[in-house]
Design brief:
alpha/beta; TIM Barrel; eight-stranded parallel beta barrel; 9 strands; globular; binds ligand 9MR
Length: 381
Amino acid sequence: MKRIKKIIYISLVSVLICTIGCANMGSVSKNNNSTLSSHFKGLFHLGAAINEETILGKDSKSVSIVKSEFNSITPENSLKWMYIQPKANQFEFKAADRYVQLGLENDMYIVGHALVWHNQLADFMQTINDADEIQGYIANHINTVVSRYKGKIDAWDVVNEAFDEDGSLRKSVFYNNLGEDYIEDVFKLAKKADPQADLIYNDYNFYKPKKRAGILKMVKKFKSKGVKIDGVGVQAHWDLKSPSIDQIEQIILDVHAAGVPVSFTELDISVLPNPWEMVGAEVTQNFSQFEGDPKMSPYPNKLPSKVQKQLAKRYHDIFKLFVKHSDKINRVTFWGVMDKHSWLNDWPINGRTNYPLLFDRNYNPKPAYKSVLEVNTNPKN
Ligand code: 9MR
């Protein structure tokens, strides 16, 4: 019911926006009272990943930004396997329940992240060497978690980061035990537990053609076999230059051609040096030998205004593209609320000072925030 009401609401708002947009062709639709989510309403959901402090209400400033600026939330860590089921058959739902409650109270599009992922998996799962045993745990995990939030969590990242850079399947504990069909089986289990939830495959480095092709081959196979999949999640851990706007556009077009909408699920823009040409979010990469090297963290106190402007322009260009293709995009989610809490301060080198989001270390909107609100929301412009 909640979902049907939302669809009707979004459709009505879309018609209204189109009517206004068509009457004012060429005018910038900036409204001074806009928030991020109201600015893009009718085009796509606008979300943020929230950490446990925010979920538990301990960071009231983040909570207030989330409530006023966003209409979708993703739990940065709290629903991952290692926290939800740290020991076999022992479930911990305290933070997850609070998370879902926050989303419901504020009528948000609530995302569950992530059901099956090789990383942040409970210890007991990582050493299993038996197909039936691991299959049993996966089925129990999905039934228990997805059923608990049936009708409340709107979308699940069902499988996360299952592909390698060359487009083949990652040799994870799931693949090693179950072979290549495990992803399909997991999607079927999720559908059984909540037939209405949007089921998403989520990954990074979609701008790499081989990886994208591998993932989209699977999506097309699911579609042709009638296996429910409702979208692809493109993580979008990017930097000031890469991927290019053309590369991002190609991702949108290719995902759309595979028959599903795209969501940009983990958007942030690193402004720090990346001398190894290393882009993406493979968390196992370690560059600890560079810790404390000032060349690798050139802005420890303040982001120079020149870089601040580059960041603002980069975000503006990205959102302009998102608006252009808003008919193919379901959601755009920032990976965090404000700079101080971003995972990018500690990856790939610990202890750096990064500035990847729209709110600064004092919870104030940055020039990039303003530049995003200045994006014309008429897709035809
Ligand atoms: O932001 C998350 C960080 O707090 C965790 O330490 C890290 C552990 O892997 O995971 C981060 O979130 C990841 C997300 O769940 C999946 N895609 C990549 C994200 C950044 O690593």
